[in-house]
Amino acid sequence: MKVTTKDLIVQTASDLFYKNGYNLTGINEIIATAGIAKATLYSHFKSKEDLCVAYLHSKDEALLEAIREFCSNKSAGDTRLIAVLEFLVQFFKSGDFNGCWCIRTFSEIPRDNKIIKAQIKKGKTKLLNYIKLLVKENKPKLTKKQQIQLANRIYLLYEGAVSESHLQNESWPIQENIEILKELLD
Amino acid sequence: MKVTTKDLIVQTASDLFYKNGYNLTGINEIIATAGIAKATLYSHFKSKEDLCVAYLHSKDEALLEAIREFCSNKSAGDTRLIAVLEFLVQFFKSGDFNGCWCIRTFSEIPRDNKIIKAQIKKGKTKLLNYIKLLVKENKPKLTKKQQIQLANRIYLLYEGAVSESHLQNESWPIQENIEILKELLD
DNA sequence: AACCATAGACAGACTTGTCTGTTTTTTATT
DNA sequence: AATAAAAAACAGACAAGTCTGTCTATGGTT
């Protein structure tokens, strides 16, 4: 499996954007880290904004895949729903954790940047849809309305846990939101 | 009550920082909006970072005062605890709402900026302490441990609601977290 | 020879922060 | 109350650096 130059660029940019922030990461830093020329980068992406969209997309895809795998290894039922939050425990511990790329990027762009905002929305919708699917599969007895509400709640607890554990640099927000979810499921 | 130049600077910078972001707001824009000279600004604040700390402090103080007043007008008991989240409903509607300045600023600064991070932590601790006080007053029958846990949960639901209603640009995260809190209080 | 990717110069537009010198406002003393 | 002294704010040029994105020229591979 060959790593294309484009993938290398996205990977490098993603790592730097996520670690140090979008605005604080310059194009020159990206090309230096990737070991490519500037012209090469601009032959694959027409602008930094373009690269940002690819970064968000890449991160979202990888996350969803990781959650999917994590949850599928848990036994069906409530356990699998709680696993969505428990996934964050290991993510937080991994050392790579640096909060939500969506919220962080959202904080860095101008208000009127619709392109990046659209990509962010897309990623969040995908996550929410996955949770909805999980709820449907593991809480089949609930009404559709109840399923949607539960999915929204899991999503909110997930997002809150990410945001706050990042800000506090502590894992208790994740643990506490897991406890909240457990109580809600009773 | 005279408005000092220093207050004018903080007010102007706060509005711009909060509206458009810290990095996207230049010193020149601040002085032009405030109608002051650059030397005047730098006679009151030794750097933009200094101004950022004042911005965070100012916002935190104003918020806590607003929440305090909002909650004190509600009847004691569970209602007053729920009011912490209900405060966000009107805040969101106000039009000034643009998410949490702490998280947004946190996303914009370098990882090693301890000064700004310390100020952010300070503000969040103050908010959490206020909630702890509220819980103590309105849930006197709970054990100390239970009080702290409840305060942490209200804080988490509050923060999650702020973060997600901002990202989604919708108020349902606030409403849903209010519902979660109500269930937890039962 | 044709084609890429490289290195890096460059333009143009930003940024923060310093500095000079003038003007206004406030405070203190007579 | 009038005048002198001190403090504060003014305008704006300027340095030194950042950034993105374009372009030229060099080198290596097929």
Distance separating the two termini of chain A: 47 Å
Spans of chain A of at least 5 consecutive residues whose pLDDT stays below 50 are: none
Number of helices of chain A: 9
Assigned CATH architecture of chain A: Orthogonal Bundle
The share of residues in extended strands of chain A comes to: under 5%
What is the mean predicted local confidence, pLDDT of chain A? Answer: 94
Q: How many independent structural domains of chain A? A: 1
Overall SS class of chain A: mainly alpha
Please write the string of helix (H) and strand (E) elements of chain A. HHHHHHHHH
Radius of gyration of chain A: 18 Å
Characterize the largest beta sheet of chain A: strand count, sense, and whether it forms a barrel: none
Task: Give the quaternary arrangement of the chains.
Answer: homodimer
CATH third-level topology of chain A: Tetracycline Repressor, domain 2
Q: How many strand units of chain A?
A: 0
Q: Portion of residues in helices of chain A?
A: over 70%
Describe the structure.
The structure is a homodimer of 186-residue chains. Chain A has nine helices and no strands. By secondary structure, the first copy, chain A, is mainly alpha-helical. Chain A is elongated. The termini of chain A are far apart. In chain A, 36% of the residues are buried. Chains A and B meet through helix 6, helix 8 and helix 9 of A and helix 6, helix 8 and helix 9 of B. Chain B binds a DNA duplex (30 and 30 nucleotides) through helix 3.
